[in-house]
Specification:
About 9% of the residues have low confidence. This protein is mainly alpha-helical. It has one domain. The chain is built from two helices and no strands. It is flat, with a radius of gyration of 26 Å.
Length: 103
């Protein structure tokens, strides 16, 4: 009898989780279709809740939105990465070169 109660409880929880997932996907989809309008010079909109507030890391010191890339990555080959890791290992306190290279 206890097994049936567990199965019923987890079935209900699974349906609630899937329903919440679908509701979240619909909400994100509708918000992605809505145009984003931020106030660049005024931090406080005249009607609270009418505009979403950007994340603080996307604002500069004056409160303006930063329109430049925050992370720039360059392409790196496997050989370059291996050489950099070898150099880090050899420069570490216990990383002395013992005459052979690991394959």
């Amino acid at each position: 009898m206890l097994h049936l109660l567990y199965i019923l409880a987890f079935t209900v929880l699974a349906f609630l989780a899937v329903g919440n997932l679908i509701r979240s996907l619909v909400t994100v989809g509708m918000e992605s279709q809505r145009p984003q309008q931020f106030m660049a010079n005024n931090r406080h909109p005249s009607y609270p809740g009418s505009q979403s507030v950007p994340h603080p890391e996307l604002l500069d010191e004056q409160g303006n939105i930063v329109n430049e890339p925050l992370l720039v990555m360059r392409s790196l080959t496997v050989q370059d990465a291996r050489e950099q890791l070898d150099a880090l290992y050899k420069s570490s306190p216990g990383g002395k070169d013992e005459g052979g290279e690991l394959a």
